[in-house]
Structure prediction request, 110 residues.
Amino acid sequence: MMNSNLDRENLKELLLLKISGFLTEEEDRALEHRINTEPEVAKLWEDIQQIDALNENIGFFSPESRIKGWNEITKAIKAEKRNRFLHWFYIIICLIITVLVIYVYFFKNI
Prediction:
């Protein structure tokens, strides 16, 4: 029973990869053959297509949405790098000011 659950989960994963366009042509042909010959696989495929059609985010699995998502990720990474740079810049400025204050306090009073 546990083995059939694993097979079903693997099948769902393959079907999701198919609808998102991440399968190779060979994998797609093999999965298409299973969809055409196995009723349970065909039912799962129908369910996934219906979920995709009902999805509020139209085109959730489309290449355009993946590109948009990737662009958002790269923007976030760039912003994080910029913030990290500013963080280190301010630390260096504070250290320079601290060293100057210590120098003026200890060595100018002699």
Summary: Residues 1-58 form one domain. The chain has a mean pLDDT of 80. The chain is about 85% helix and 0% strand.
